[in-house]
Amino acid sequence: MTLVCPGCGRHHAADERFCDACGVPLVHHDAVLPPETELREKARKVRPGYAEGPLTRVATARHQAEAELLQGLLLEEGIPSLVRRSGGFDVPDFLAAGPRDIVVAASGADAAREILGVPARMPLRPPAARPAWVRVLAVVLALVSILVIATFVVGAALAQGAQRRPSPVAGATL
Ligand SMILES: [Zn+2]
Questions:
Q1: Same domain flag for 7 and 68
Q2: How far is the CA of 3 from the centre of ligand 1 (A)?
Q3: CATH for 56
Q4: What is the CA(42)–ligand 1 centre distance, in A?
Q5: Ligand 1 centre from 11 Cα, in Å?
Q6: Average of pLDDT values for 76-89?
Q7: CA separation for the pair 56, 60 (Å, rounded)
Q8: pLDDT at 102
Q9: pTM, whole model, 2 decimals?
Q10: DSSP assignments along 17-61, one per residue
Q11: 12 C-alpha to center of ligand 1: Å?
Q12: How far is ligand 1, taken at its centre, from the CA of residue 25, in Å?
């Protein structure tokens, strides 16, 4: 049984407890292996036939944890997938939370939708699903832009009126 440093990967004698290079507590060599096997296991599960073509969104999860759950379901059937932050939610408030798109290669899209129970033509993100504050913000922005435009138009009209008004008076005095 050899000890290995999880930081630098150096091997150490069984009676040492810390890496003399990094000061990191040493672990048994076997303990370092599982993540690698997990990756290999994942790679083995992927069916090459499901990994071809352009990326296609097949579902939207409510948050990262749900997205990872769906990814696991797809991988069990050999479909590799990516998780992306849904469009419109890539602002700082939504970095940790917020909906996620599940994206797969086009050749795996139909199988993925079947596994996830998503009808192929179903609208995945109806506009009504947007949070209330987004709609309120849109209305406020629209009102502000209308006010700004109205202010300019009225201001321009008043300025024109002010320029014209003196001229008849000036004409009368001549
Ligand atoms: Zn080390």
A1: no
A2: 11
A3: 3.30.70.1530
A4: 28
A5: 8
A6: 85
A7: 12
A8: 93
A9: 0.46
A10: -B-TTT-PBPEEHHHHSHHHHHHHHHHHH--GGGS-SSEEEEEEE
A11: 9
A12: 9
